[in-house]
């Protein structure tokens, strides 16, 4: 074994056996919170992410934001940053957290940066971005699809949001609620078909559908921050498991969380701030294949329906006795392995992934194999943050588009009665399917990077962190 792989093995063992640190607050100290919002909308003309074709932004439906939320109790402090982006890759999250840490004194392990997964935000990294960027530069010497260098711009805006939020800490009341979403607006998008296969998005009214291949998570989690004197709602965090691709087109938009906030502001005042994070929705979207009229609800209606549940949750939310405590770890998950021939095929096929010259899943496969070059040592860092909010309530941030079964398992195995699970944090490892889904196949499996079983291992790690935090 070469010394570099010995070092890697040691690092992996260290990183997976124990949390990097954990600490708890002085429970008699008051809870303080601060928040700040910065604009992360690129100029028009920037490429949009979310599909296997090139789109350029032609307008702004609503601006994209980085929303930072800082919590402090005594010496214990944590920051969450919610970004209207499809992903925040690990290396960019590390750079943004290092700079935020330098500015605020928070350690980088106490900061978690999440993407909401909007499909109407910029395409700014990864194999598809690199391909389109290279093609543009080869053709004309410049890339009109990237009118600015977006990564430094994004990092600067994230750092500014964390810094401002940290400077605005004030005592708050904390409440929580968990309510079932009615009417149902989220659906498992994988189906058992009459030919024995499992297919994603088989189409509204498809007569060959037998039944969904998995569940949904029908619950909306809400954390509420209030004025401790008047009990007036100041800000909320909503977590719901429903994929954010309900807008389409070529205008920037934060998708349905924008409309959620709009309705909450209309009820609770313009100064009210709504944070949103995706629950585990790797296999969930808004398409009801049984809908007779074939209707798909779009972002404005989804945001409105969700806001009704959130407003009920805010009215019913129960006060928590804050008891801030954190735990963090990085799991170095095994990546899928491909032969040199397959890698060469992917490189040669890559220019076709944004065309229709190959079947869709072949394009996805080529893109995935090429994109795995981002993880040259065959390991994908999966950072997990667990935050205890009170003796009954905890929140976890996980990377990737996590299958809902894994999130439900984490909630079931958590020692906390109310566990809030957020995905798309601090990394872009694509889909995190279950072992069962790996056997069944279809799009999310073809577009996954991690090896089968690593999703279950991530949940084991998260449960371990929560057990350390349990009273
Ligand atoms: Zn997606």
Compact overview of the structure:
The protein is an alpha+beta fold and 471 residues long. The protein has helices spanning 3-17, 90-104, 127-140, 150-167, 256-268, 299-316, 340-349, 360-371, 404-413, 435-440, 443-446, 454-469, and strands at residues 21-24, 31-39, 59-60, 65-73, 76-83, 111-115, 170-171, 173-180, 187-188, 190-193, 198-200, 209-212, 219-226, 233-240, 251-252, 273-278, 284-285, 318-319, 325-334, 379-388, 393-397, 401-402, 418-422, 431-432.
Structure description:
- The chain is an alpha+beta fold and 471 residues long.
- The two termini are 43 Å apart.
- A five-stranded mixed beta sheet has the order 1-19-20-21-23. Strands 6-5-4-2-7 form a five-stranded mixed beta sheet, with helices on one face.
- The longest helix is centred in the middle third of the chain and has 18 residues, at 150-167.
- Helix 2 (90-104) packs parallel to helix 4, helix 5 (256-268) crosses helix 6 (299-316) and helix 9 (404-413) runs parallel beside helix 12 (454-469).
- It has one domain.
- The chain has helices spanning 3-17, 90-104, 127-140, 150-167, 256-268, 299-316, 340-349, 360-371, 404-413, 435-440, 443-446, 454-469; strands at 21-24, 31-39, 59-60, 65-73, 76-83, 111-115, 170-171, 173-180, 187-188, 190-193, 198-200, 209-212, 219-226, 233-240, 251-252, 273-278, 284-285, 318-319, 325-334, 379-388, 393-397, 401-402, 418-422, 431-432.
- Bound molecules: zinc ion (ZN).
- Zinc ion is lined by residues 117, 243, 245.
């Amino acid at each position: 074994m070469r010394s570099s792989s010995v070092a890697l093995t040691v690092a992996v063992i260290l990183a997976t056996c124990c949390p990097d640190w954990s600490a708890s607050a002085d429970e008699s100290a008051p809870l303080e919170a601060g928040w700040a919002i910065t604009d992360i909308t690129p100029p028009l003309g920037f490429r949009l992410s979310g599909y296997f074709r090139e789109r350029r932004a032609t307008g702004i439906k609503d601006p994209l934001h980085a929303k930072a939320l800082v919590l402090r109790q005594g010496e214990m402090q944590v920051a969450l940053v919610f970004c209207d982006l499809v992903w925040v890759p690990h290396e960019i999250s590390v750079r943004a957290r290092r700079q935020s840490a330098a500015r605020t004194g928070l350690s980088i392990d106490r900061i978690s940066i999440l993407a909401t997964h909007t499909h109407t935000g910029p395409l700014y990294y990864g194999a598809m971005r690199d391909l389109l960027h290279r093609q543009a530069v080869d053709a004309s010497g410049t890339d009109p699809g990237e009118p600015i260098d977006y990564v430094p711009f994004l990092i600067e805006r994230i750092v500014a949001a964390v810094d401002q939020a940290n400077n605005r800490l004030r005592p708050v009341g904390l409440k929580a609620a968990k309510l079932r979403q009615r009417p149902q607006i989220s659906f498992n998008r994988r189906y058992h078909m009459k030919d024995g296969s499992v297919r994603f998005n088989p189409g509204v009214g498809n007569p060959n559908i037998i039944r969904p291949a998995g569940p949904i998570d029908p619950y909306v989690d809400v954390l509420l921050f209030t004025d401790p004197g008047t009990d007036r709602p100041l800000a909320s965090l909503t977590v719901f498991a429903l994929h954010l691709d309900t807008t389409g087109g070529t205008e920037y938009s934060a998708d349905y969380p924008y409309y959620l906030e709009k309705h909450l502001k209309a009820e609770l005042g313009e100064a009210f701030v709504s944070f949103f994070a995706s629950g585990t929705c790797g296999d969930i979207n808004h398409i009801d294949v049984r809908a007779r009229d074939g209707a798909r609800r779009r972002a404005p209606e989804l945001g409105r329906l969700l806001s009704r549940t959130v407003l009920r949750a805010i009215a019913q939310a129960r006060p928590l006795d804050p008891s801030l405590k954190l735990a963090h770890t990085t799991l170095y998950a095994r990546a899928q392995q491909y032969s040199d021939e397959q890698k060469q095929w992917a490189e040669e096929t890559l220019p076709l992934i944004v065309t229709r010259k190959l079947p869709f899943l072949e394009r996805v496969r080529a893109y995935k194999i090429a994109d795995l070059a981002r993880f040259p040592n065959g390991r994908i860092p999966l950072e997990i943050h667990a935050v205890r909010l009170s003796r009954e309530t905890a929140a976890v941030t996980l990377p990737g588009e996590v299958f809902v079964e894994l999130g439900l398992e984490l909630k079931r195995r958590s020692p906390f009665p109310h566990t809030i699970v957020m995905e798309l944090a601090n990394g872009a490892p694509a889909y995190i399917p279950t072992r069962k889904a790996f056997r069944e196949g279809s799009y999310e499996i073809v577009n996954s990077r991690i090896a089968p079983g690593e999703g279950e291992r991530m949940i084991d790690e998260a449960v371990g962190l929560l057990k350390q935090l349990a009273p």
